[in-house]
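# nightly structure sweep
# worker-07 picked up a monomer target from the shared queue
# config: single-sequence mode, recycle default, output format = structure tokens
# input follows
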Amino acid sequence: MALRCLVFDCDGVLLDSVPAKTQAFARLATPYGPEAEKRFVQFHQSHGGVSRYEKFAWFYREILGREITQAESQAFAEKFKTYCREELSRCREIRGAREVLERWHGQLPLYVCSGAPEAEQREVLSEHDLARYFDGIFGSPPEKALLLQNIVTRAGIAPKQTLMVGDATTDLDAARHAGTLFYGVGELLQGGDYPWSMDLTELSAYITQEQGQA
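# output follows
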């Protein structure tokens, strides 16, 4: 079956925003000492695509030894947003991203499925003049697997005609949960049983190939 819908993660797939967010997580943990900072950054890097709120909860539980309160979670979220804003506005696009969006905009429905809060994701993509390419931009909550499933349902397109493009295991897990196809991006996902490239420069060729085989 021909591909009829494209769904993209954002961080590390459309924008090279992962380093900015890693630095923001590090700054949150800095007041608690270098070991706390190191462990928090490691947890963040090994759980790409997981909601920041789940990461905040892990920090309090595993580093501070207690459950986080709603007020503390919100305070962390506000600091994180402040730390991220300036760096995110300056981060580069992933190679090939705009070309892919230009090529398929108007040809296929395009969606964003992100673990970041939806309003923030819309703001960042708008700042980079990328929001206009998408039929829908969606973020957490809910968790990514359910979010992708909801997008497929909203689009009214069969999962096997939908391609999820992601750079983290949570993106791959979401695709498997929703029953969509998957295209891996970046070093972390190299070597899997799915099409892959370091950036998006080869994605249009893959989509064209799939269209031709339908």
